[in-house]
Amino acid sequence: MGTTTRPPRLSWTTVAPVLALVVLALSWGRDPGPVLVVVVAAALVGAVLAAVHHAEVVAHRVGEPFGSLVLAVAVTVIEVGLIVTLMVSGGDEAASLARDTVFAAVMITCNGILGLSLLLGALRHDVVEFNREGAGAALATVLTLAVMCLVLPTFTTSRPGPEFSTAQLTFAALASLVLYAAFVVTQTIRHRDFFLPVSPGGAVLEDEDAHADPPSSRAALTSLGLLVVALVAVVGLAKVESPAIEDGVAAIGFPQSFVGVVIALLVLAPETLAAANAARRDRLQTSLNLALGSAMASIGLTIPAIAVATIWLEGPLLLGLGSTQMVLLAVTVVVAVLTVVPGRATRLQGVVHLVLLAGFLFLAVAP
């Protein structure tokens, strides 16, 4: 009697993006009731988790440091889509949404993802080491972008309020693109070794995934396609869910600016999970590349995209940070520099960054 061969089962990572797209098609343009809100939220979480998986498959295929760019750019696509759609429907109340979201993304990446990665790595090895040349270059780029796009609008005088003039916004957008492009060239072509892990003696090591069998080209292309589907579903479902998010924030008495924090937490969930997984697998350099690369992409790509969107968006675009936000940014700068310069860290540095994130979240709720 012959044996029966069972067909391969579809994995949840294949089903989730497609199912999320179906939920998006069925819910688009409808007024979601409580049940539909829950269904959309579940599909949204599934699409985010699936996006993490497929981005990691593609990243494994192309190798580091190219792989870290895949998820960073993908997350930025989600962020821009959410900000623009909410600004279109939010009117003047959404004038500061881009600032709130981008600043929240910077704090989450430079304190949350970075701190979590350091803590997870140090819990396994007490002291973790990383490539300080690459981390320092990435941090310098992030800080320059943050000051140029989020701090200077508070002090310019061409427009009243924390707002750039058209010429200033154009310059900031172009400068952001130049800085991001220069960093990508540095990371992937000119000084690729700066973004690879180092040994305790400081020697650059090969990519951690180099000795593992990479996925086939077919598997990588399939994951790339499903990643695109998942990202489309995330943007669309988040748009469907956005009224519930705004109503929920208002119902619990949080400031309207907290909507930007919710968006940032949502779009950075894939990065956070991917960085945490990498840190647990002793790939701390990948975690740092993800954290700082995401912060850079969040400013360097989002601000130019929003600048282009202002051509048809009505109302002001408030980008300048308030005094409390600037203090938090300044402390983050000092702490991040002290973390990166030595090229090694302990649990303490991880906890310090996580406490800074907690302080940001608390002050976002109770300013």
From TrEMBL:
Residues 35-188, 223-364 form the Sodium/calcium exchanger membrane region domain. It comes from the Bacteria. InterPro entries: Alkaline_pH_Ca-Antiporter, NaCa_Exmemb. Keywords: Membrane, Transmembrane, Transmembrane helix. The chain crosses the membrane at residues 12-29, 35-54, 66-90, 102-123, 135-155, 167-186, 219-238, 258-278, 290-313, 319-341, 348-366. GO terms for cellular component: plasma membrane. It is found in: Membrane. The keyword Signal does not apply. Pfam families: Na_Ca_ex (PF01699). One of its GO terms (molecular function) is potassium:proton antiporter activity. It is a multi-pass membrane protein. This is Ca2+:H+ antiporter.
